[in-house]
Amino acid sequence: MEAIFGGFSGLLLFGTLAALANFVGGLLLIKSGAHRFGERFLKYLVALGAGFMLAAIFIEMLPETVNIWTESYKGVSAAKAVGGSMTLLLGGYLLIQLFEHTIAPHFHFGAETHPESFMRPSAAYTAVGGLWIHTFFDGVSIAAAFLVSFRVGLLVFIAILLHKMPEGFTVASIMLASGRSTTKALWATLAIGAATLAGVVAIALVQERVTSIVAYALPFSAGVTLYVAASDLIPEVNQKEERNPMVSIVVFAGVALFYLLHRLMEG
């Protein structure tokens, strides 16, 4: 399996699949006509993705980061060895905080839509720009994880894939609420999907010249992923908890699903 999907072509395949999921999310809102069904389906997908992403960060991405940095700084304490990687993780987290709440305030990555918040076209384009930055680092996360190992890459890919449809759903709703056409809404979902692919390609190309790039890309992208899971998706889940506690339970199902896949792949 690793031989079949390894290398640059494999990274392109997984990056393309993740990008297509963004577009499918937009189509779900625009073309299906089953808007209500879409919201009910996507809220569970958001919860599942949140749990899966949190597990991916703490069970795979961070342990692999610690391993890489401690191997590179032998002879010093573990705390000093991983200090740089934890700084990168914090930087990734704060980057999305900057874009969401400073450059594009009131913007969320979850499936929930608030048409009244995005009536101005400039606000819509700013929000989509923030999403573009995030989805670029989705691609960075996928590529960096695959460069660590096929198993880590596959698990991180699944974690990211689970929130791709809600992203597409959200960006399409933002564009439509600002008065843009359905065509422009679909183009916006294609743009954020292309950003994911760009992140994959960027890391793959840089890796050919800077072999240590994964040591920096992995913790930084983990910080980005942590923000999306803990500060965006979990609050979206909690907002719906009073009306439907099952949504919160699905978060734990996402963690359990990751752990199960993790053990199966180890075996």
Defining traits:
267 residues, 11 helices
Could you characterize the architecture of this molecule?
The chain is mainly alpha-helical. It has one domain (7-266). The protein is 83% helix and 0% strand. It contains eleven helices and no strands. It has helices at residues 2-5, 7-30, 35-72, 78-81, 83-103, 121-148, 150-161, 164-177, 182-209, 213-239, 246-266. Helix 5 runs antiparallel to helix 6 and helix 6 (121-148) packs antiparallel against helix 8 (164-177). The longest helix is centred in the N-terminal third of the chain and has 38 residues, at 35-72. The two termini are 15 Å apart.
Q: How are the SSEs placed, and which strands pair?
A:
Elements: H1 2-5, H2 7-30, H3 35-72, H4 78-81, H5 83-103, H6 121-148, H7 150-161, H8 164-177, H9 182-209, H10 213-239, H11 246-266
